[in-house]
Write a structure and sequence with these properties.
It contains seven helices and two strands; from the N terminus they run ααβαααααβ. It is mainly alpha-helical. The chain has one domain: HAD superfamily/HAD-like (Rossmann fold, 3-Layer(aba) Sandwich). It has helices at 2-7, 15-18, 40-48, 51-62, 68-79, 86-90, 100-110; strands spanning 28-29, 115-116. Strands 1-2 form a two-stranded parallel ribbon. Helix 3 packs antiparallel against helix 4 (51-62), helix 3 runs parallel beside helix 5 and helix 4 runs antiparallel to helix 5.
Length: 124
């Protein structure tokens, strides 16, 4: 069965086998490129007009020249001073990955609200 799903680039989660519906549960996700198609930091950089600068730091990290945390800090420097109102412009541009809406609906029926942790927030 796994091979069939892998060929179709599909995942299968049998939630009722993972969670006891009688017990309160906590289910957390990374958001960027997992629940949504985009990386929020890249999209913020686009809106702020500093995408090329942020992409350059990302490339440097991907090539092994910067560790993850250092790269994240450098990318966030380019976003310093952005107004929180930019999220109003960003939100409609974000797209859920295939199957996420259904997964979240199922999780809400079984457990408390799912929690999301954008990686960018971990450094603050």
């Amino acid at each position: 069965m796994r091979e069939t799903f892998a060929k179709k680039n599909t995942d299968l989660i049998q939630v009722n086998r993972l969670l006891d519906p009688k017990e309160k549960s906590f289910f957390s996700f990374d958001m960027d490129s997992t629940l949504i198609r985009q990386e929020v930091i890249d999209e913020l950089a686009r809106l702020a007009g500093v995408y090329e600068e942020v992409a350059s730091v990302t490339k440097e990290a991907m090539e092994g020249n910067l560790d993850f945390h250092e790269a994240l800090k450098k990318r966030c420097i380019y976003l310093k001073g952005l107004s929180s109102s930019i999220f109003t412009e960003l939100y409609p541009k974000l797209e859920l990955n295939t199957g996420v809406e259904r997964l979240l609906k199922i999780l809400k029926e079984i457990i408390l609200e799912p929690q999301f942790f954008p990686e960018v927030l971990r450094i603050f």
